[in-house]
Amino acid sequence: FAIFLILASLFPFGLFLTSFAKNARQASAIGSVVLNFMLFLSGATIPLKFMPPFLQALAKIIPLYYAVDLLRSTWSFAPLLQKWVDVIALFVFFIVFSLLAIRKFKVNF
User: Fold this and answer.
1) Which residues contact residue 39 at a Cβ distance below 8 angstroms, ignoring those fewer than 6 apart?
2) Using the 8-state DSSP alphabet, how is residue 43 labeled?
3) Which of 70, 71, 98, 80 is nearest to 10 (CA)?
4) What is the pTM of this model?
5) Which tens digits make up the pLDDT trace of 14-52?
């Protein structure tokens, strides 16, 4: 369930970000920059405890922070309800970025 929730919350985030691109090359560049930024701040590469307090606070507004935290707890077989803040945050990211992506994309049939 955790992996499905993480995928479901990050997919609309990626759609929304790439909706600003005019072509595939720009979408790739936007995705790469944002992914590297999120990997640095999420605690996936460098533990947050070694970062200054303002970066620790900034990390809590990106979806990958909650994804990494949720995955770390599931790897240690912690109950999913023990990380209810991460679950709710990922649901909120899913809803918000789904609505933003739907609104940003213009579908022409």
Assistant:
1) 45, 64
2) T
3) 98
4) 0.82
5) 999 988 888 999 999 999 999 999 999 888 888 888 999
